[in-house]
Amino acid sequence: MPEDESPRSSHSNPGKSLVNGIKTNPASNSPKSSLSVPLGPPVYVDLAYIPNHCSGKNTDPEFFKRVRASYYVVSGNDAANGEPSRAVLDALLEGKSQWGENLQVTLIPTHDTEVTREWYQQTHEKQQELNIMVLASSSTVVMQDESFPACKIEF
User: Fold this and answer.
1) Are 93 and 130 in contact (CB under 8 A)?
2) For residue 77, which of 52, 68, 111, 144 is within the disulfide window of CB 3.0 to 4.6 Å?
3) Is 18 within the bounds of a domain?
4) Which domain range does residue 125 map to?
């Protein structure tokens, strides 16, 4: 194929990269320090997956200030890598406290972890104040040789 007929997807944009859909400066190792996205109105969604298995690498209070969900899914289950991160769970409380409206939020952990249990117990009063419910499920899905906890969400 001649060079002038190559598909657009093959062209690169040197000097720019995307982290979570946001343009960043590749010279910086920390995406948070290089964000140059202007603040805008918050985005309201029904369901949001907390990025990177609820790791503190890409999620901070700003995420919860800007992405306002009825349900947040926490999928981290790797304590050695800080997943889920206590700092991210605390960031949910901080971000939600600045919403200015007391909408119901449900947090759905996909695994029962020590971090999640401790956070739940230590911040339960704050969760109630902010209208945050942590969904615990005793339901189990069994598929072939594997079983895992399950939650049912209705809208």
Assistant:
1) yes
2) 111
3) no
4) 43-149
Asked if the peptide bond before residue 61 counts as cis, ω within 30 degrees of 0, the response is no
What is the Cα–Cα distance from 112 to 154, expressed in whole angstroms? 21
Q: Please indicate, yes or no, if residue 37 is contained in any of the structural domains.
A: no
Task: Report the pLDDT value the prediction gives residue 61, as an integer from 0 to 100.
Answer: 87
- Give bridge partners of residue 148 from the DSSP assignment: 141
CA Rg value for the chain: 19
Domain presence at residue 8: no
The model's pTM = 0.64
**Token reading at 129:** 């104040």
Ordered DSSP codes for 42-59: -EEEEEEEPHHHH-TTT-
Domain count, the chain: 1
In the chain (155 residues long), the average pLDDT of successive 10-residue segments reads 47 45 45 55 92 72 92 80 81 93 89 87 95 78 76 58
Report residue 141: phi and psi, to 5°.
-100, 130
Helix, strand, or coil (residue 108): strand
